TrEMBL record:
Transmembrane segments: none annotated. Belongs to the pirin family. InterPro entries: Pirin, Pirin_C_dom, Pirin_N_dom, RmlC-like_jellyroll, RmlC_Cupin_sf. Residues 203-311 form the Pirin C-terminal domain. Pfam families: Pirin, Pirin_C. This is Pirin family protein. Residues 42-147 form the Pirin N-terminal domain.
């Protein structure tokens, strides 16, 4: 897994242990992601399926893309499509994908890079593997997260943050049994590089077999943990979790994730995405690629798209 790492975790800053009086977050729910296909046919797991949107707020959805080993000619992407009213966060763990939009933005996301795209008032974009990857094939694995925007930011101009793998804040547990990559937000006073409209934290953690992660978490945030690969448990009552499962935590000062002592040979460690944010608590109307506050605003977005007010794909401009 080429996501940014270090050989010796003992050289990294350590996350503090929970203090006296710190309360552990209970586990409210564990769900299993259904599998499907997105875009032109690349496999995804719908990480948040079955979770009430009120518990997800400020998040809308998250897809685990792959993990898939493409043969030559198989890599797939998406066609041109619109977005309005939210942000997409694309984190590529393995492989490479190219992005382009009709505002002149875009670039290549690969091996631990993150692209944070604010769709805002409206954008057309396309995500596709580079031609050399289509011809050669190869491994692809990543996530795409949709983050809602508050009402007063839904009409902001589109913008980007390109977060290179080398910019990610790296931490370890007191016993150096887990690597914690802070992509956005703050963990135990250590700040990640991502800048967000809605206060939130996004982490990718790798736990060695038997390792335990007690992660301090902002009390005003919700908290979710999604297992990319491996087996382990969550919460102080050690509820079992495995690949493709999401744990929803309740309130508290820290959350707990632990890797099983025995892991499968193809997934020797527990890989987990941990995220949470400050709920927006506004009305939500979501249909397809548009996330607004009312049904009328969603219908207006569809009309704007159909009448070309989002602009044209670059190839047709």
């Amino acid at each position: 897994m080429p996501a940014i790492t270090v050989e010796d975790l003992t050289v990294l800053p350590r996350i503090r242990r929970p203090g006296l009086g710190d309360q552990p977050r209970p586990v409210w729910q564990v769900t299993t992601a259904p599998q499907g296909y997105e875009g032109e046919g690349f496999p995804v797991r719908r990480a948040f399926a079955g979770i009430d949107l009120k518990q997800l707020d400020p998040f809308i959805m998250m897809d685990q893309m792959g993990e898939v080993e493409y043969a030559p000619g198989e890599p797939k992407g998406t066609s041109w499509h619109p977005h309005r009213g939210f942000e997409t966060v694309t984190y590529v763990i393995d492989g490479v994908i190219d992005h382009q939009d009709n505002h002149g933005g875009g670039g290549t996301i690969t091996n631990g890079d993150t692209q944070w795209m604010t769709a805002g008032s409206g954008i057309l974009h396309i995500e596709a593997p580079p031609e050399w990857l289509v011809q050669r094939g190869g491994l692809f694995h990543g996530i795409q997260l949709w983050v809602n925007l508050p009402r007063d930011a839904k009409t902001n101009a589109p913008r980007y943050q390109d977060i290179g793998s080398g910019e990610v804040r790296l931490l370890s547990t007191p016993d150096a049994g887990a690597l914690v990559r802070v992509i956005a937000g703050s963990v135990g006073g250590y700040q990640g590089p991502g800048s967000t409209f809605t206060p939130m934290t996004l982490v990718h953690a790798t736990l060695e077999p038997g390792a335990r992660l007690e992660l301090p978490w902002a009390v005003e945030y919700n908290a979710l943990a999604y297992v990319l690969s491996g087996r382990g448990s969550v919460g102080v009552d050690a509820q079992p979790v495995g690949m493709g499962q999401t744990a929803v935590f309740g309130a508290g000062d820290f959350l707990t994730v632990e890797a099983d002592e025995a892991q499968e040979s193809r997934s020797p460690r527990l890989e987990v995405v941990i995220l949470g944010g400050q709920p927006i608590r506004e009305s939500l109307a979501w249909a397809g690629p548009f996330v607004m506050n009312t049904k009328a605003e969603v219908m207006a977005a569809y009309e704007d798209y159909q009448k070309g007010r989002f602009g044209l794909p670059v190839a047709q401009a």
